[in-house]
Write a structure and sequence with these properties.
heterodimer, A: 65 residues, mainly alpha, two-stranded antiparallel ribbon, 5 helices, 2 strands, globular, B: 136 residues, flat
């Protein structure tokens, strides 16, 4: 099972940089970049935190492919 | 490069310098006995100085990164690199113990075991840096 995400599009729509988002959820810019590129699947806790920062439900950010 | 990567790079460099100074002097036979202990102390002092000064410089250049705890991806990669280095450590220590069957004395065995610890540390920090670049 592969997890894909819309973090990059939603983050850019929200006017946030990778550093801004990382600071808000306690992650490095590099980890945010890894999530956006699909190189790292975050924990459930981090996934909820990302969705909260983007102001959308979790299933709009992450989905199975 | 994250603060943690820079920090591990400094530690890796400090450990490499220590290993070159101490084990280099042992292998070349330039020091023996009490001289080896003196070289050990000197190498430790150089190692600590490199790590302290290097850490202070990177913390001054990136104070926000210095205060931020490791995130979940960094912790995961730390666990992976520790697991890799564990096998190196166990293999090295078993190899050092096996030296007794080849006529080596305690001094050589102790240095071999210490060398295994140093190699495992280098593998730990080195694999962390490689995995941070490559893996998720």
């Amino acid at each position: 099972m592969r997890i894909v995400n819309e973090v990059r599009a939603l983050r850019e729509a929200a006017g946030l940089t990778q550093t801004d988002m990382g600071d808000r959820i306690g992650m490095t810019r590099q980890t945010i970049a890894a999530i956006e590129q699909g190189r790292y699947a975050p924990s459930l806790e981090a996934a909820f935190a990302i969705a909260d920062v983007l102001g959308v439900p979790l299933d709009q950010v992450f989905r199975r492919e | 490069m994250t603060f943690r990567e820079k920090s591990y790079l400094v530690i890796l460099f400090g450990n490499a310098v220590f290993a070159l100074l101490y084990f280099g002097s042992l292998f070349t036979g330039n020091v023996t006995g009490g001289g080896a202990f003196g070289m050990f102390i000197a190498a430790v002092v150089v190692q600590i100085a490199i790590i302290l000064i290097g850490s202070a410089v990177i913390a001054a250049l990136d104070p926000r990164g210095a205060h931020r705890p490791a995130d979940e991806r960094e912790r995961l990669i730390e666990m992976r690199s520790t697991r890799i280095s564990y096998f190196v450590l166990v293999s090295g220590v078993l190899g050092a113990i096996a030296l007794i069957h080849f006529g080596f004395r305690q001094y050589a065995m102790a240095n071999a075991a210490f060398g295994a610890v140093m190699v495992a540390e280098v593998v730990r920090y080195g694999s962390f840096l490689v995995l941070m670049r490559r893996a998720g």
